[in-house]
Amino acid sequence: MQPRNMSMRGVVDLGAVKAASEAAAQRAARAASAPQAGADGAADAAGGFVVDLTEENFDSVLALSQQAPVVLEFSSQRSPHSVELGEVFDRLAAEFAGRFVLARLDIDATPQLAQELVVQAQVQGLPAAVAVIAGQLAPMFDRAAPQEEQLRQILDQLVAVGEQRFGLTGLPGAPGAAAPQGEADEDAEPAGDPLLAAAESALDAGDFAGAAQAYRNVISDYPAHTEAKLALAQVELILRTKDVDVDEVRRNAAERPTDVDAQTLAADVDLSGGNVEDAFGRLVETVRRTAGDDRNKARVHLLGLFDVIGLDDPRVVKARAALTSVLF
């Protein structure tokens, strides 16, 4: 089986499952003819909102997360707690009636698919479940299942997040579900990452310090979260430059060419003003002029500015080569 085409954002971006290769295209073709959740693939006992997740219907089931949260339940008949959890989930799926979709993954019946998802979702043991909201995966619980009332509250929160942040109203027939639309609203805001909701709310309120802390919290839990790292670097740049006197910063930098603090702040001002190459050139030159701790401080700051712009940017590539030349 070919590796599934999922981009990683610390949590797994399951919305990136698409035909980016011949294998992915073949999966999509199989998915197009596979039973849909809520139809033939669903469990009658849960009112048609439970589906057994397989390699063949993977893409089509996860596509339902654009209508309602999809809960991926990792299941095994060898785990009594997992079996008990499945019974609770079935009752709640019937109760919620299409406001979420339960996708049950039998790790014994589909070991290859299970292995992929266990690794990418960082599942440590059963019972376990993760949620997919508008294509974005977020953890629910792992190795310890909540009680039924606690699980009901978790699902209520998932449904609320889906409705409030992404406009998810449930599958057709669910209470409050919107009527199917022929075309998507072109002006609709694209779905975001639920893990970044707190940071985005802080940004909306103009609380840059709060946003920075929220991004740090995400990175603490998900060290590989690329978007959070990039956003944190950008917000920290704003915090460093938002109250400075630009003329004074530039004057101090001109008067003290080997003062690392003066040069790094001037580079921040350059970058925030759109003068990317000037910022990079200033710090490369500062690295060249300094030594010891000062040189390392300038180097580390420059690397941080690379993160703000993005490592694939041609200006970053050029400046990185210049830095290497100065250092070695």
UniProtKB/TrEMBL annotation:
CDD domains: ybbN
TM annotation in the entry: none
Region (Disordered), start-end ranges: 171-190
Domain Thioredoxin: 23-160
Record field: compositional bias (Low complexity): 171-182
Entry protein name: Tetratricopeptide repeat protein
